[in-house]
Write a structure and sequence with these properties.
The structure holds two protein chains of two kinds.
Chain A lengths: L4 E3 L2 E4 L5 E6 L6 E7 L6 E7 L2 E4 L8 E4 L6 E5 L8 E8 L9 E2 L3 E5 L1
Parallel strand pairs in A: 2-11
Antiparallel strand pairs in A: 1-3, 3-8, 4-5, 4-9, 5-6, 7-8, 9-10, 9-11
Chain B lengths: L3 E2 L4 E5 L4 E3 L2 E2 L6 E8 L6 E7 L7 E2 L2 E6 L4 E6 L8 E10 L5 E6 L3 E6 L1
Parallel strand pairs in B: 2-12
Antiparallel strand pairs in B: 1-4, 3-9, 5-6, 5-10, 7-8, 8-9, 10-11, 10-12
The chains are: A mainly beta, B mainly beta.
Amino acid sequence: EAGVAQSPRYKIIEKRQSVAFWCNPISGHATLYWYQQILGQGPKLLIQFQNNGVVDDSQLPKDRFSAERLKGVDSTLKIQPAKLEDSAVYLCASSFTSGGGDEQFFGPGTRLTVL
Amino acid sequence: AQKITQTQPGMFVQEKEAVTLDCTYDTSDQSYGLFWYKQPSSGEMIFLIYQGSYDEQNATEGRYSLNFQKARKSTNLVISASQLGDSAMYFCAMREWNYGGSQGNLIFGKGTKLSVKP
């Protein structure tokens, strides 16, 4: 079974530029999550999708971050314009349902450096 | 207040020995789940083990087991017979949910870096 795929793996941009990340979850997984992991910290949830609807985006900085999950499969996360403090690893995860004990499977992450 | 506290930024263990990684949590909910993830230097988060708040037995999964003390709000991860490949960051996480079925986010601690010495 293929895991969660993410691209690119690494991205370096200058502040005020825009960037987009792509995620393909495990086939059949209805729930998709985007996390931000700043160096030295645990991941922090940015947004959760159930199929193609947003369940929770309370921690997404909506003035610069946006995400979509068209057709309830792939998802993209965009930052526009990027700030220095956006330097982090962006992790995508998926789970079969949104059940409390449901295991989340993580992708390899995209490491973003903003100069 | 921190929801998840991991007080050990780094730990060393000799190969083949057991090691315990500490985690305490803060919640007023009766229903919640506790998770441990491993993050090697390659970056992906690997699920290790899960404990539900109503589970009476400590969870075990191969070389991983949990010392779940509900009254103390702690869920320590025990890795037995450490291997060199166990060197990684380990994250404790919690998810709260209420009887209505709505679920909170998965909240992670800051992690513990485990180094296994040959």
